[in-house]
Amino acid sequence: MNWKLTMVLLTLAVFSAYSLVAMTQVGYLGIWLAGLSGWGEGQVLMDLVVACGLIMVWMVADAKKHGLNPWPFVLVTVTAGSFGPLFYLVWRLSRKPVADLTT
Fold this sequence. Notes:
Blueprint: H1 3-34, H2 39-65, H3 71-80, H4 83-95
Helix pairs in contact: 1-4, 2-3, 3-4
């Protein structure tokens, strides 16, 4: 296993564990409502939406360049944020050589 895939899997594991705790504490809707509870929280939520939007543009272009279907990962990104790009990276890193991700 290459180091990039290892780092993405480690990030996914830590983020999943943290998200599971958050979901058990406040639920899916509670996470979204927390992002709307004040100006600072709203800025963080807006930042996540902008970042995920930019990442979705990259995912679609990257997947099309390699003849892959990006839409399941886009759907996960829209509904679950960073999980979509993390799953996409795991999928791509396990399918293609690492150097191919830069082209």
